[in-house]
Structure formats: structure tokens, C-alpha cells
Amino acid sequence: MHLTSEQHRQLRDEGYIHLPNLIPPHRLCRALQAINASIGKGMNVADMETFVSQSFCPELRSAPIITDLFNASPAMAVAEAAIGHGRLQPVTIGQVALRFPSDPSSMAPLPPPAHIDGMYTPTNGVPEGTIANFTALAGILLSDLPDENAGNFTVWPGSHMKHADYFRRHGPQSLAGGMPDIDIGPPRQITSCAGDMILAHYLLGHSVAANVSPHIRYACFFRLIVIDHEETRWESMCDPWLEWHPMRL
């Protein structure tokens, strides 16, 4: 599989591509059934912050019904077309990412702040003082998002290059002190349909929009890591296409 010239351009310039109708419907239905069955057993309110930061339905994270959304679908071929055939470590865990509707009486949503994954917070499982960086983020939508402010995946186009420039000047370990204090432009909420995939560069600033819709936003995210990441993990934060061999051409 190959990226089109437009997909290659968008990935290079904006740091992400949106691939519609990529995941077979039967895999979406099986994953949704498993997630809803898990939710139906009940959730501890005290665990909600951890679920939001790490994953809902933690017992499903390594189950094939979740990981096959990526491993046993065209998603793998698309990622390899951008990163390199045979270069990805096996995907063994996913994040079940749910966004529940906000209280109808709450105030209008504020624009979400951008972040880069892998930074420590008290609930996300990243050890304090470390940076758990990776190569790419693959997000697979399990529900339709035709409108904004419905828990949409939100990106700051082009911010991957601005972050790489910052880390060249200040060192990649500076991320442990917080997000770079730079102007990365306005955010873009991505409207999408169940079965779509968003492939984003690790350095792309992103977040999740508020959900003022009446529906739960269902998605699964996968952190993609190349096989030689340990040797290139710091340099890749300064040279954004170091681990993406086809994108270097």
C-alpha cells in the first residue's frame, strides 16, 4: 500500500492524515459490543480520572477484539506505508477512549489545550521524571462525529515541526518540564465517521474537544513504536522524520 501524493503532503506539512472508512464494520461492531458489555457491568466513580487518562475497560486493552482493530485491518498497511514496512513493533495494547456528554447545565466549552503524549501526570501511568515518547498515534473512531464539540480528536496542524524546532534548541528532555511555550496556531476539530482512522505524528499537538452532544464518543487509540526506537527516541524528537523512512524521500 502507498500513500497518495496528497496524503504524503498533508502528513509532512500538517502532521496527520484522516483516512475515511478504513476499518471493516464487523470489527467495529465486535469492539463496540465488548466495550458496551464492559460498561454495563458498572464503573467505579473513583476510577474515572484514571480511565480518562489511561483507558476505559482496562480488561479489554490487550484483547484481540481491540488490538485487531489495528493489527487485522488495513490500518497496519497504512501506518507501514508512512513509517516503513516491517518497522513497527507489534501492537499489543490499545486505549479505549470514551468521552461522555457534559452536563446540559454546564457552561459553554473552552478550547482544549494542546499536549504531546508521554508526559507525566498523577493518573496517566507515566513515571514521574520520564518521557514515554513514541513514533505515531493511530486513532480509530467507533462512532460518528458529524459535528464539532462532540468529543472530537483535535489537532494543531503543523505543530509537529514547531515542536521539533523547539526541541532542537532546548533539548527533547525539556518536555519533562511541560509543554513548550510557543505559538502553534489555531486548533482543528476533526469531524469523522465510525471506521475512520487518524494517523498523527507523535510531535503533533493534539487534544479532545468537549462533548456537548447527547452521545458518547467511542474511539480506540494505539501508540505506534518503531523497532529501533530506543536508539533513536531522543533524536527523533528533533528530527521528526527520522523514524518515518518513506517520509524522508
How would you describe this structure to a colleague?
This protein has 249 residues and is an alpha+beta fold. It has one domain: q2cbj1_9rhob like domain (Jelly Rolls, Sandwich), CATH 2.60.120. It has seven helices and eight strands, in the order αβααααβββαββββα. A five-stranded antiparallel β-sheet has the order 1-6-3-8-2. The protein has a three-stranded antiparallel β-sheet with strand order 5-4-7, with no helix packed on it. The protein is globular and about 45 Å long. The two termini are 16 Å apart.
- Strand and helix order: HEHHHHEEEHEEEEH
Largest sheet: 5 strands, antiparallel
Q: Mind telling me the CATH superfamily name?
A: q2cbj1_9rhob like domain
Q: What is the molecular shape?
A: globular
Could you tell me the radius of gyration in angstroms?
17 Å
pLDDT under 50 segments (min length 5)?
none
Percent in strands: 5-15%
Determine and state the CATH class: Mainly Beta
The number of strands is: 8
Second CATH tier, the architecture: Sandwich
Summarize the structure.
With 249 residues, the protein is an alpha+beta fold. 27% of the residues lie in helices and 14% in strands.
